[in-house]
Write a structure and sequence with these properties.
Length: about 500
């Protein structure tokens, strides 16, 4: 819950942090980027640590470190310290996530594993979608520091319960060594990929720096794959990907995250800047999405146990595609009831995918690689989220840039210089109205209409692209099947 919550809760606190610490916009971006970068780069390596030393120990170390880093952020008095401890949050969060999946895989027998993952998915989904609501309440009524301090008692409770309840399961043939060159190559490749996705909106997709980092990422992954075929105990045995269902599960997680996290990125701006909602109100309007994920995840786990993952996964992505298409029809006057319908459909569609794709990845991996498989699942989701935000952001920016000048002229507003148009476009991309000081009232009244209509046209196109990605994911889902190795769960692991 802590790791997923901190992925979204901090977005609400950013304006207050910026004001209190006198930070620049770029500084504030790094509060989020530093966290996701550290998380994405180290997830698979962290999963390997769990396989090697035991998921219980790894999980508990992650809990303590994450809570301590959270408390340190709350006590920080400079933006540099906030960003530094956010990176530590990401590193310790990377220890937590794969270890949690490894513990579930080792503890529950095959007939109960899907329900366990369903409850896990419910917590992840509710925390991700509920972050803006809780963040809004805390920032509005307490302080931005409380957004981080809240993790301290949660971490203490998790540590105490973990020491009392969790048992250490380790496969007999667990890895005994570390693939240091493999870790370095994979971490470098992941860093270059995620860095390029983070910086591309600022550098430009055609910029040399963007393509340099993307090229370095491709080279790093190629060298990593070559090295893994030559080392005795590889970080990720490439034989894992001979399993078509496991590979399909990884691709499915990437595509799901592109559609979900990429599309949801714009919805928060739509609710707050176009409809003028407060952060708390915007979070409350997303409750249908959160609620359907909470209700749908355990139900999806039960359904997948009975029928296998293929049909629930394909059906879930089809409903996701339909909901993203519905969200592309939202406009400046759409009622809350219509919004709620599409948000609820999105939550209900995502629930079986979150549960089923996780089971497909973790269940089709050998027990001794369950941590690595959990890291793969989480890394796929982080990369998909970064890719979705970057690509759909580029689609949005292109549409706004293309439409704004024409819409501005059609409203008979005074012409803008190229520099003014570029500045206005950046504001409109987040749904803000670029009304300059001293603008006559009759013109100031027209600008928000133009800005919001242009933003909505960009959001509509981005949601359509997300819908197409979800349709592709339907066909990928048809390649999945129940985990071949789930029979070992809860039985084949030794207790230490």
């Amino acid at each position: 819950m802590m790791v997923a919550l901190d992925g979204t809760i901090v977005a609400i606190a950013n304006p207050a942090i910026q004001k209190d610490l006198g930070a620049s916009f770029a500084d504030v971006q790094w509060i989020t980027n530093g966290y996701f970068l550290a998380l994405a780069v180290t997830l698979i390596t962290a999963g390997k640590l769990g396989d090697r030393f035991g998921h219980r120990q790894t999980f508990l170390i992650g809990v303590v470190g994450f809570a301590a880093a959270s408390g340190a952020i709350g006590l920080s008095d400079s933006i540099a310290l906030v960003v530094t401890f956010r990176v530590f949050q990401g590193l310790f969060g990377a220890l937590l996530m794969p270890a949690a999946l490894g513990l579930l895989r080792a503890t529950f027998p095959a007939e109960k594993l899907n329900m366990a993952i369903g409850i896990w998915g419910m917590v992840i989904g509710a925390s991700t979608a509920g972050g803006p609501i809780l963040g809004g309440l805390l920032v509005q009524h307490v302080s931005w520091q409380s957004v981080f301090f809240i993790n301290v008692p949660v971490g203490v409770a998790a540590l105490v319960l973990g020491l009392l309840i969790l048992t250490d399961h380790r496969a007999e043939n667990a890895p005994r060594s570390f693939d240091i060159p493999g870790i370095a190559l994979l971490s470098g490749a992941m860093f270059c990929l995620v860095w390029a996705l983070i910086k591309a909106p600022a550098w430009g997709w055609g910029a040399g720096l963007t393509w340099t980092f993307l090229g370095a990422s491709v080279l790093g992954f190629a060298l990593f794959a070559l090295w893994e075929t030559r080392v005795a105990e590889p970080l990720i045995p490439l034989g894992l990907f001979r399993s078509v269902p496991l590979s399909a599960g990884v691709v499915l997680m990437v595509l799901m995250a592109i559609a979900f996290l990429g599309g949801l990125f714009f919805v928060t701006f739509y609710l707050q800047n176009v409809h003028g909602m407060s952060p708390v109100d915007a979070g409350l309007h997303l409750l249908p999405l959160t609620g359907m994920m909470i209700v749908g995840s355990p139900l999806a786990g039960a359904l997948i146990t009975k029928t296998g993952p293929r049909i629930p996964l394909a059906g879930g992505m089809a409903l996701t595609a339909l909901s993203m298409y519905g969200m592309s029809t939202l406009d400046t006057g759409t009622s809350g009831a219509v919004m709620s319908l599409w948000f609820a459909g999105l939550g209900l569609g995502l629930a079986p995918v979150m549960v089923g794709a996780t089971e497909v990845i973790v269940g089709n991996a050998p027990m001794e690689l369950s941590g690595v498989a959990g890291g793969l699942q989480q890394a796929a989701m982080q990369i998909g989220g970064s890719l979705g935000t970057a690509v759909l952001g580029a689609v949005m920016a292109s549409k706004v840039d293309g439409d704004l000048a024409g819409n501005w002229a059609a409203a008979k507003l005074p012409p803008l210089t190229p520099a003014q148009l570029d500045q206005a476009s950046q504001a409109v991309q987040v749904g803000a109205a670029p009304v300059a000081k001293g603008t006559p009232p009759e013109l100031a009244a027209k600008i928000p209409t133009v800005a919001h209509d242009t933003f909505v046209s960009g959001m509509s196109l981005a949601c359509l692209v997300a819908a197409v990605v979800a349709v592709v994911a339907v066909f990928v889902a048809l390649l999945t099947k129940r985990g071949e190795n789930t029979g070992a769960a809860g039985a084949g692991a030794g207790h230490i």
